[in-house]
């Protein structure tokens, strides 16, 4: 049985995108500059899978999880304004070179700084209180925000938010020390 996972590959090295492995966490050379530590986000016009109030609450909680341990603040952009981060649900090929595969494998993906796109697979069975066949929306959101901030997958620490897989029905919303160490190493100033 395949455990559902993040759509970001585990090994993401190229001549332009090197990453550093320290302890179990990894981070890239892409990061937000200090002038952008106050990030704004908005919800795009992709497929509607959960109610807007539910999605707002989930994202607000997930952003606050990272704000507590990093130099970042996050605020929803006013209607019609541009934003640093855009959050949307999509099905299949949605034009970003990383198509979704339908239920059960690739859950979501987010792009590294300063791209700011966070996409969920609309075909997954999402929940805010997951049963055994559902995926916890907040757990996945906290993970994907880690990518938006520049973290890669935690290689050997299954309890870390940045570990690439999460079992159906599991809630994993609290950062592990590995996640905290990774964000502190990346933004050490």
Helix and strand topology:
Elements: E1 19-22, E2 25-28, E3 38-43, H1 52-67, E4 73-76, E5 85-90, E6 108-110, E7 117-121, E8 126-127, E9 135-136, H2 137-149, H3 177-186
Parallel strand pairs: 3-4, 3-5, 5-7, 8-9
Antiparallel strand pairs: 1-2, 6-7
Can you identify the CATH class? Alpha Beta
The CATH homology group name: Collagenase (Catalytic Domain)
Distance between the termini: 43 Å
Gross geometry = globular
What is the architecture at the second tier of CATH? 3-Layer(aba) Sandwich
Can you give the mean pLDDT? 89
Q: What is the domain total for the residues?
A: 1
Radius of gyration: 15 Å
Low-pLDDT segments, ≥5 res: 11-23
The main β sheet shows up as:
5 strands, mixed
Work out the helicity level: 10-25%
Counting DSSP E segments of at least 2 residues, the number of strands comes to: 9
Secondary-structure content class: alpha/beta
Instruction: Estimate the strand proportion.
Output: 15-25%
């Amino acid at each position: 049985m395949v455990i559902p996972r993040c759509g970001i590959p585990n090994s993401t090295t190229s001549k332009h995108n090197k990453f550093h492995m320290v302890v179990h966490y990894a981070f890239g050379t892409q990061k937000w500059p200090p002038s952008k530590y106050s990030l704004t986000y908005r919800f795009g016009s992709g497929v509607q899978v959960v109610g807007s109030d539910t999605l707002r609450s989930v994202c607000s909680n997930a952003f606050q999880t990272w704000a507590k341990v990093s130099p970042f603040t996050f605020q929803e952009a006013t209607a019609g304004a541009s934003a640093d981060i855009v959050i949307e649900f999509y099905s299949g090929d949605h034009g970003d070179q990383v198509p979704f595969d339908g239920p059960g494998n690739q859950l979501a993906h987010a792009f590294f700084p300063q791209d700011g796109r966070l996409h969920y697979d609309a075909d997954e069975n999402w929940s805010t209180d997951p049963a055994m066949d559902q995926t916890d929306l907040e757990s996945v959101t906290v993970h994907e925000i880690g990518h938006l901030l520049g973290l890669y997958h935690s290689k050997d620490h299954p309890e870390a938010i940045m570990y690439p897989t999460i079992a159906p029905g599991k809630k994993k919303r609290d950062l592990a020390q590995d996640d905290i160490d990774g964000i502190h190493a990346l933004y050490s100033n």
